[in-house]
Amino acid sequence: MDNWDFPWVKEVGCRKAPASDRVFEVNDFGAVGDGVAISTAAIQRALDEAEKQGGGIVRLSPGIYRSGSLFIGNNTTFDIPKGSVLRGLNDIAAYPVIKTRVAGFEIEWPAALINIIDKQCSAITGEGIIDGDGKVFWDDFWEKTNNYYTPNGLRWASDYDCRRPRGILIQNCSDIRVDGVVIFRAGFWSLHILYSHHVTAENICIANNIGGRGPSTDGIDIDSSEYVLVQNSRIDCNDDNFCLKAGRDADGLRVNRPTRYVLLRNCRADRGCGLVTFGSETSGGISDILVENMTARHTGVGMKFKSGLTRGGYVRDIYIRNVNLSEVGKVIDFDLNWFPESMVKLPESFAGKPIPEHWKVMTLPVVPPERGIPVFSDLHFRDIAGDKCRIALSGNASTQIPLRNLTFERCRISAKESGNAGYAENVRFIDSEFLGEDGSRLTE
């Protein structure tokens, strides 16, 4: 489609806002913003009362409110205005275990700091701060991963065994808006949109590289969701900045729910693994995505496509235009056998021994194995500009996992190396040029 005029674009995002403007001040329910008192129960009382009365605005007054997991109801706005901070507790017990999906598998896992689950027409607003205070969870992850999981061939398990709370979880919802908030130091992913439709995330600032190196501190993850609008946001994190996912391995193929009809525009990435990342969880399929008017500087990769030999599914009908990149590692990267250490393989030393319930989900084989081969096709890039980059185009596509139908139109990239994507079928360069300082060149 030459004009990139997609009918579904008009349908993305939250369609309606909570109707009631009645305000419920959390202090009236016993919350104390002194940075010491634990206000979980008091804030939750305010949220519950608002939903009970048909909705309203639950508001924090200026101050620092320490809290565990909170749950927002139908037709309710949780307002965190400038000058107020919601700071997560460091005790994982403050985040009750729920049924959810984490990094591609449906398992039991701690709830997020703020949760909207099985609700409609709810919102999180304000220019205040949601501070996950996640360093204690980061440090626990690195210590266990480096000293136990990796040496014992269990690197794939550490991401799931070392439980860390997300910042915001929107799960199985519709007509949800997150607007204006600042998210600091999330224990795990910052904003997770899961099994939901008609969601808007806008004017959000995420800063996770504060006080340490947070593992898997993604910015915004859109996971098996539809009709999502993300715009006017900025992310500095230690993993994928803006990411689209759809489950992984046998469990993801069982669920088989796609991510599609997503508009991502007018956003910026600073540090992080990828301005926009597709995968690595691809089992349910990712399609019909429009990304436009984006910038990145000092990001690991501009546009990253990743999956693995057990993940299956597809990534197709992706349209990316008007992207400006400076001093990024790789402009476009196709890593189709990403991070082999993350492939689930139970060491022989565990044969016949009891294993955790979530390991049983994770170790289910993909049958037949061919279902695990992902398909990447119909990927379109227009007006992509990059300078002072390390590699223009990178990839490990092969005859086993090929790339098909790639179009580069009016793309101008200067890098130390022009690179290549590996095995690809039907690649078109239209008025495009990828130049390497080493004299290498990719062009029409």
In CATH, what is the class? Mainly Beta
What is the second-level CATH architecture?
Answer: 3 Solenoid
Low-confidence stretches: none
Average pLDDT: 96
Structural class: mainly beta
Overall geometric form: globular
Task: Please give the share of residues in helix.
Answer: 10-25%
Q: Strand count, sense and closure of the main sheet?
A: 32 strands, mixed
The CATH topology turns out to be Pectate Lyase C-like
CATH superfamily annotation: Single-stranded right-handed beta-helix, Pectin lyase-like
Instruction: Let me know the number of strands.
Output: 34
Number of domains: 1
Beta fraction: over 45%
Calculate the terminal CA-CA distance, rounded to whole Å. 20 Å
How many helices? The count is 5
Description:
- The protein is mainly beta.
- The protein has one domain: Single-stranded right-handed beta-helix, Pectin lyase-like (Pectate Lyase C-like, 3 Solenoid), CATH 2.160.20.10.
- Helices cover 11% and strands 46% of the residues.
- It contains five helices and 34 strands.
- The strands form two sheets. The chain has a 32-stranded mixed β-sheet that branches.
Summarize the structure.
Helices cover 11% and strands 46% of the residues.
Helix-strand layout with pairing:
Blueprint: E1 23-25, E2 34-38, H1 40-52, E3 56-59, E4 63-67, E5 70-71, E6 76-79, E7 84-88, E8 97-102, E9 105-110, E10 114-117, E11 120-125, E12 129-131, H2 135-149, H3 155-161, E13 168-171, E14 174-179, E15 182-184, E16 191-194, E17 197-202, E18 205-207, E19 220-223, E20 226-231, E21 234-236, E22 240-245, H4 249-255, E23 259-269, E24 274-278, E25 286-297, E26 301-306, E27 314-326, E28 330-335, H5 357-362, E29 375-397, E30 403-409, E31 412-422, E32 424-430, E33 433-436, E34 441-443
Parallel strand pairs: 1-3, 2-4, 3-6, 4-7, 5-10, 6-11, 7-12, 10-13, 11-14, 12-15, 13-16, 14-17, 15-18, 16-19, 17-20, 18-21, 19-22, 20-23, 21-23, 22-24, 23-25, 24-26, 25-27, 26-28, 27-29, 28-29, 29-30, 29-31, 30-32, 31-33
Antiparallel strand pairs: 8-9, 33-34
Helix pairs in contact: 2-3
